[in-house]
Amino acid sequence: MQNIHLLLVDDEDDFRNTLAKRLIKKGISPLQAENGEKALAILENKRVDVVVLDVKMPGMDGIAVLGHIKEKYPKTEVIFLTGHAATQDGVEGIKTGAFDYLSKPIEFEHLFGKIKQAYEKIKREEEKFEEAEFRKYMEEQMMTTERLASLGTLAAGVAHEINNPLAIINESAGWLKLILSKQEMAGIPRKKDFEKALDKIEKGVERAKRITVQLLGFAKKDDSVFAEVDLVELAEEAVHLVKREATNKDIQIVREIAPDTGTIWSDAYQFRQVLINLLTNAIYATDAGGRITVILEAVGDTVKLTVRDNGQGIPKENMKKIFEPFFSTKPPSEGTGLGLFVTRGIVEKLCGTIDVESRLGDGTSFYVNLPRYCKIKEDLDQDERIRFLDRLANKSKSTP
Ligand SMILES: Nc1ncnc2c1ncn2[C@@H]1O[C@H](COP(=O)(O)OP(=O)(O)O)[C@@H](O)[C@H]1O
Ligand SMILES: [Mg+2]
Predict the structure, then answer these.
(1) Where are the domains of the chain?
(2) Whose CA, among 1, 42, 285, 318, lies 20 to 30 Å from 248?
(3) How far apart are CA 289 and CA 250, in angstroms?
(4) What pLDDT, in 10s, does the model give residues 12-52?
(5) What sign has the CA pseudo-torsion 215, 218, 221, 223?
(6) Residue 299 in contact with residue 369, Cβ under 8 Å?
(7) Pairing of strands 363-371, 353-359
């Protein structure tokens, strides 16, 4: 109640002041107006929850003021004060939208109770509104997630189908190059132009392949194989795969992998993809002499992966965009803008979360948190899954 914004409107100064004093004693300091025009002016500029409104006033009368209030501020509740035995005014007030009416002379506690009821009604409506808003937001979120999931499946399907023709184009270009390099072709006209065109084809295929590889991270349902996956092993493997790239740039990869990190239920290919995407981004962003740290640890029931670099960092205005598909700050020959999009897709599919912290010029950290198990529809081997869950349950029993 102390937070209520209350407005008293009455032309009798004494009456208004006495009322205000008693309200202040209860911890409420009301706004005051001596006529309808002033009341409406206050409402223009200030938030008011409840108005205590006299009917008989010089100038605009109470009913007219009430009509204005209900039209412009429908959420504001009005308690009507009528003259002695003037029930007709009160009924008129209720019809125009007043919360209730009291006849003068009024008893303070009675009025106070009514104010309280009116305020409670407002609070209830606000809660209802907030809940409806929240529900709407959640529904929109779910629609987006579902759309992205089906988009991902579609994209992975397309990527899969495109891989074959890409391979054929690539092979044919290679074959043509080989023919061109033969002695018998040494003197053909515009040989250089053919070679240039073939180079372009090969570069184009390479880029298309990079895109399909990323999109396949969403792996079609029947392609992913879920099993108990040893994260330590996988992390070592992923680091090994990008090691040469790092060494070439004189970047050190430091591993802080807790040997007891344990296993999760996942598709090995997908978790490795997450690691490789984060590592290749880190390598790209880091200058010679830099350092990348891969941390893997068990945190409660989850596994936490951190990939930290001391590279260039991410500008604030890009932080929101980096997970969007096709957002990239790299030249087209080097980036697809799909790495983080796919990474987040995989992490979410595994019921995990991904967060990023970055300071321009200092470096970037990506944090991935994965539960050891999440309900995945694609589970293949029922028996093995059950054995995994049993082990998990026993382990949580033995650790305090
Ligand atoms: N470790 C990092 N340091 C700095 N910027 C990064 C890092 N990781 C990602 N980014 C930024 O996020 C963008 C999107 O990354 P990603 O989705 O993997 O696409 P791509 O690597 O193909 O550009 C990058 O182009 C880069 O601007
Ligand atoms: Mg990338």
Answers:
(1) 6-106, 145-217, 224-398
(2) 318
(3) 5
(4) 999 999 999 999 999 999 999 999 999 999 999 999 999 99
(5) positive
(6) yes
(7) antiparallel
For residue 330, give the ligand nearest its CA: 1
Instruction: Enter the tokens of residue 378.
Output: 């694609």
Q: 224-398, superfamily in CATH?
A: Histidine kinase-like ATPase, C-terminal domain (3.30.565.10)
CA 122 to chain centroid, in Å, comes to 30
Residue 390 alpha carbon to ligand 1 centre in Å: 39
Tell how far the Cα of 363 is from the centroid of ligand 1, in angstroms.
12
Position 280 scores a pLDDT of: 94
Alpha carbon distances (Å) from 9 to 12, 24, 182, 304, 345: 9, 16, 101, 61, 59
Q: In what order do the strands lie in the sheet with 302-309?
A: 252-257, 291-299, 302-309, 363-371, 353-359
The structural architecture, per CATH, of the domain 6-106 is: 3-Layer(aba) Sandwich (3.40)
Query: Which of 81, 1, 97, 16 has its CA nearest to residue 49?
Result: 1
The protein residue whose alpha carbon is closest to atom 5 in ligand 1 is 314
- Does 274 sit in the ligand 1 pocket, CB within 6 Å? no
Task: Give residue 343 CA to ligand 2 midpoint distance, Å.
Answer: 9
In sequence order, which residues have a C-beta less than 8 Å from that of residue 165 and are 6 or more positions away? none
CATH number of 145-217: 1.10.287
Global pTM reads: 0.58
